[in-house]
Every structure is written in C-alpha cells, then in structure tokens.
C-alpha cells in the first residue's frame, strides 16, 4: 500500500513539476492571485526562476516514483536511478540557491529587495491582465531549452548512477 502511495505521489509531483517547467503560469492553480503570477511570468528572470522550481519538482517526483517502483518491484537499478536523480536535484538546488543569493545581494544593493510585497499588493488590486498571445515565441524557446536540458541532465545522471552501481 505504501509503495502505491509513493508511486502516485511521485507521478503527480513529477508531472506537475514538468508542466510547471513548460509553462510557469500553471502555478496560478495553487493561488487565487492569478494577476500576480501573470505579472511574474511576463518577467523573463522570474519566469526562468519558476521554471527551475518546476525542474526541481519534476526531479523530486521522479525520484520518489523511481524509489517506490524499485522498492515494489525489488529492482535495485531503480533505486540507483532514484539516487542519481537526487544527486542531480541537489546540484541544481545548490546552483539555483547560489544564483538566488547573488540576485538577492544585487537587489539589496539597489534597494529593491522587498519590492515583492508592493508587487503582490498592486497585482492583487489590479487583478488578472488580458495578454494575447498568452505564450510568446520567446517563452516557447525557453520551454524547449529547459525541456532538452532537463532530459539531457537526467539521462546523464541516470547513466552515471547505473554505471556506478554496475561497476
């Protein structure tokens, strides 16, 4: 029963993370402030930060899925796949954390560190905006780049984990 729950949770979190990586506006499903997320997604820097969050969610869900399937099917190679995805997720997390720290220091120097509160307040007052087209060509290129990068890094980490397990 526990493995079934793990498989379902891993599948749901991984799928949601992948969908958020492809289109960060899907995060608005978790909030009632659709206008706030629209304004965040229209900014390239924030949009790519949300895409990295989607990548981390996707890797987290996929590693839970692989670990649960490995446990249920008694296949140690799936456990190795899960461990490889955890290593990749850790590397991406620490890289994103470092970039976030640099951006926070830059915002602190400019005096813009706490502008998110003002932005949220204005977005709540103004509400959703009518944007056409909702997904631009630049957003499509970014989504394609993130998808190729995620799949490439995941394949490399899985191959390295399997090679390490078999060696």
| Strand-pairing-aware structural class | mainly alpha
- Helix percent reads over 70%
Low-pLDDT stretches are none
Cα-to-Cα separation, first versus last residue: 33 Å
How much beta, percentage-wise?
A: under 5%
Strand tally, please?
0
Radius of gyration: 18 Å
Q: So how many helices?
A: 6
Overall average residue pLDDT:
89
Estimate the global geometry from the Cα principal axes.
Answer: elongated
Give helix and strand order, one letter per element, not per position.
HHHHHH
Number of structural units classed as domains: 1
Described by strand count, sense and barrel closure, the largest sheet is: none
How does this model look, in words?
- By secondary structure, the protein is mostly helical.
- It has one domain.
- The chain contains six helices and no strands.
- It has helices at about 1-20, 35-40, 45-75, 75-110, 115-125, 135-165.
- Helix 1 runs antiparallel to helix 3, helix 3 runs antiparallel to helix 4 (about 75-110) and helix 3 packs parallel to helix 6.
- The protein is elongated, with a radius of gyration of 18 Å.
Give me a quick take on this structure.
The chain has 167 residues and is mainly α. The protein is built from six helices and no strands. The protein has one domain.
Topology:
Blueprint lengths: L1 H21 L11 H9 L1 H30 L2 H35 L4 H12 L10 H30 L1
Summary keywords:
mainly alpha, 82% helix, single chain, 6 helices, elongated, 167 residues, 0% strand
